[in-house]
Write a structure and sequence with these properties.
Blueprint: H1 8-18, E1 24-25, H2 26-32, H3 38-50, E2 54-62, E3 65-72, H4 76-83, H5 86-99, H6 103-121
Antiparallel strand pairs: 1-3, 2-3
Helix pairs in contact: 2-3
Length: 126
């Protein structure tokens, strides 16, 4: 699943939503991230809803005003996983191999590589 890359502000608001067990309103997000303006939060929530990252979870009240509450549709781990391309996965693996000083981990990786090569070279039964 190819997922759109989030901007800094989108990521900031998604992190607030991901860290909450309950759906949040724009006002709730403003309280939890006071460095953001109410207008920015409203614009970003609309964009996140349009691109399928959040949904309206329900309605609540802020003072006398009816407000919508939002919850994430995609989890933080799903987003991170979808953001990793084959190139970044390769770079992470290479960096891990170069940095590790644990021979047991290297042996386990070598065994996984050997098993995967055998799996790829085995013709499927028809």
């Amino acid at each position: 699943m190819e997922t759109e890359r989030l901007t800094k502000r989108e990521t900031q608001i998604m992190n607030v939503l991901w860290s909450s067990d309950e759906p949040l309103s724009a006002h709730d997000i403003l309280v939890l991230a006071p460095e953001l303006s109410r207008n920015t939060i409203q614009i970003v929530l609309k964009k996140l809803q349009t691109i399928g990252f959040i949904e309206v979870a329900g309605f609540g009240y802020n003072k006398n005003a009816l407000t919508r509450t939002f919850r994430p549709i995609i989890s933080q781990s799903q987003y991170i996983q979808s953001s990793l391309t084959e190139g970044t996965s390769y770079a992470l693996a290479m960096n891990f191999i170069k940095q590790t000083d644990n021979p047991e981990l290297l042996d386990q990786l070598a065994e996984l590589i050997k098993e995967k090569k055998q799996e790829l070279n085995t013709p499927e039964a028809e």
